[in-house]
Amino acid sequence: MSDFNWSELPFGYHKTNANVRAYFKNGEWSKPEVSESEYINIHMASTALHYGQEAFEGMKAYMGKDGKIRLFRWEENWKRMQNSAKGIYMQPVPKVLFKEMIVKAIKQNKEFIPPHGTGAALYIRPFLFGSGVKLGVSPADEYMFVVYVTPVGPYFKEGFNPVKIAIVRD
User: Fold this and answer.
1) CA angle (78 as vertex; 75, 79 as ends), nearest 5
2) In whole angstroms, what separates CA 63 from the centre of its chain?
3) Rounded CA gap, 82 and 152, in Å?
4) What are the two backbone dihedrals, phi and then psi, of residue 79, each rounded to the nearest 5 degrees?
5) What is the C-alpha to C-alpha distance for residues 85 and 55, in angstroms, rounded to an integer?
6) What does the chain look like in DSSP terms, one character per residue?
7) Angle made by CA atoms 48, 73, 129, in degrees to the nearest 5
8) Closest Cα to residue 91, out of 136, 148, 25?
9) pLDDT tens digit string along 56-71?
10) pLDDT confidence band for 124 (50 / 70 / 90)
């Protein structure tokens, strides 16, 4: 990965080796599978497309000075995704499956973790959507959970610059 200028990396998508996918069908989650494809086949009548049955999270992994990979607050991301899934009547992803897929995605793409001290990180995007077919307004019977990763620079290139606001309560 010597062709990356890690210190100048923008916050954007860069193709990596693989992503990890699991499917909820017939009342149970499948085992995770690794895919090199950046594309997903989805039925035109899926609940994700017509009723917005989708949730995503975003977290980062960093390379430490000691060469160990550090994953930032994955459990908090899992909890938020659980709440989102329940709120829009999707099948929640079990905690063990969530972590397994994140770890597998990181391992499949280890060479894309920016070196320590560059200001860059490996962005992790887990997302869940209703892949099942429904014409009427009701939750899907099938779901797909995907985790992909991409190296990114800082979200705010110039640093975090809060906006001053006033709250008026009348």
Assistant:
1) 90
2) 19
3) 26
4) -60, -45
5) 7
6) -TT--GGG--SS----S-EEEEEEETTEEPPPEEE--S-----TTBHHHHH--EEE--EEEEE-TTS-EEE--HHHHHHHHHHHHHHTT--PPPHHHHHHHHHHHHHHTGGGSPPTTSS-EEEEEEEEEE-SB-SSSS--S-EEEEEEEEEE--SSTT---PPP------
7) 10
8) 25
9) 999 999 999 999 999 9
10) very high
**Residue 19, both tokens:** 């992503």
Residue with tokens 């860059």: 120
Please give the share of the chain, as a percent, with pLDDT higher than 70.
95
